[in-house]
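pinging the channel bc i need a second pair of eyes. not urgent but kinda urgent?? the chain im working w is below, pasted from the shared doc
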Amino acid sequence: TALVGLMLAATSPQVIEFNCRFGDPEAQVILPRLRSDIVTAMLATVEGTLANLSLRWANTHAVTVVMATRGYPEQYGKGSAISGLAEAERAEGAILFHAGTKIGHDGQVTAHGGRVLAVTGLGDNPASARATAYEAVDCIDWPEGFFRTDIAAG
């Protein structure tokens, strides 16, 4: 995917970056629905034969909620404990993607980044996918974390 990162400055939008890769968290809503072999698709892209490939997709919808450390994207602390992850993963249709986590020798998961978790919910329609994502988020106990409550709200 070709992505352009923009920031709204005081007077106009400013280009921050150009990326040719899977975006984060964009990939977390795309890849769980892909039923075709991703390696085959990547090779077809490199070989210039992607037009000849028919990708298969699951007939589902996906919503991803990012959980970040308080203070992100500016200054944020590291090392805060996160619990409830196993319960969140048990929510039907929920997938947790770790980005800025670390597992200690005692098995405790802690935050070690700004964007720490991406919680994806799958469902038959956008509303059920959203409900699944937030159901899983609600299982996670992380007082030093935050997330937006308006993802896929309307």
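so The two ends are 25 Å apart (CA to CA). and Strands lie at 2-8, 13-20, 61-69, 81-82, 94-98, 101-103, 109-111, 115-123, 145-147. — does that match what u expected or am i reading it wrong
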